[in-house]
Amino acid sequence: MSDAPLSVLFGALLVLILLSAFFSGSETGMMSLNRYRLRHLAEKKLRGAQRAQRLLERPDRLIGLILIGNNFVNILASSIATVIALRLFGEAGIAIAAGLLTLVILIFAEVAPKTVAALHPERVAFPASAVLMVLQRLLYPLVWAVNMLANGVLRVIGVSAEQAPSHSLSSEELRTVVNEAGALIPRRHQEMLLNILDLEKVTVEDIMVPRNEVVGIDLEDEWEEILEQLIHCQHTRLPVYRDSIDDVVGVLHARNVLSLLGTSVFDKERLIGLVREPYYVPEGTALHRQLLNFQRSRRRIGLVVDEYGDIQGLVTLEDILEEIIGEFTTDVSALSRDIHPQDDGSLLVDAGVTIRELNRLEGLDLPTDGPKTLNGLVLEYLENIPEAGTSLKLAGYPIEIVQTTGNAVKTVRILPRLDD
């Protein structure tokens, strides 16, 4: 090397610096690849993605290969720079060469290529993977020996390099991914995906129609009243019971009686014959589980029961779907029968409304981890039945009790949230 022309030494030094930049950029590019996008591209038979995926199956070997190459070219570059400095400046040139080479490698072989690779990992990693695959085969014995020694050190401290890293995402991490999708996923679709993730946190009792609001057919009523109810009822399916919802006979589908209405053959016995046996749902059932249960049993409506078998309310398939896609009823009045916006920006609300529905429709942030209805939330906070005119503050929202009954809050006014 000492007899080689300076032009050859400078050329060799330049090539080594470029190789150092290649190894540095390859390392950052390979490690910066999005593993889910990489898997997707590999499944689409993109050759560069397939090579990168194979290399990343054993990251310890990949890192070992890159570091062997990088250290080799850097040490060789240092030796050549020292020879050049001795020829040009004598012994004093060694310090000059060390300083200049350090600066050049830091800028052109480390910071610059790694920055480019971090910003555009696929553009760097996919072409580089072809070279790295060849080097891995050529240098396999050396890479294997280095990894054996390094992995032995790791095992001493309780780390196994052969365990594949887990790339599975938790529901909260998936939520972050969806939120950061930006324009890639329309906002409406993002909301639906987030609602699906929330299904496992919500139970049927959170969305059920409470038993005191369940609309059904009481067989103890006069036949004329039952006919009138069937003609004007807005619901497709109705529970049928005797005297009380606790004595349920079954569920009636309105379409089964349309052809019989107004005929002489239609009576209570015929009505009972059209009733399908009731379907019961435990009150703690998660919505994602109940959605599958409805699909499996081919049902669209269920009666929610507690641990004692007492009916607590009613849940439908539509209720669960609305938790995912939002309200889709064609009855405009149904959306606002419990919530009435006022000119001053406040809301006049029927306290029997569920907190989840109130939050969803009006964009509020009332707590949902306790009572399910607004009435229950107010009573839990006050610990008594308040009088009309009582005011309180819940989760930053000023609330005024407008009307009460003997054992419950009937109507409240919710004012805009106050900033703390």
TrEMBL record:
Transmembrane regions: 6-25, 62-86, 92-112, 124-146
One Pfam family of this chain: CNNM
Gene Ontology terms, MF aspect: flavin adenine dinucleotide binding
UniProt entry tagged with the keyword Secreted: no
Cell compartments where the protein resides: Cell membrane
Protein purpose: Plays a role in the transport of magnesium and cobalt ions.
Protein name: Magnesium and cobalt efflux protein CorC
Lineage: Bacteria, Pseudomonadati, Pseudomonadota, Gammaproteobacteria, Chromatiales
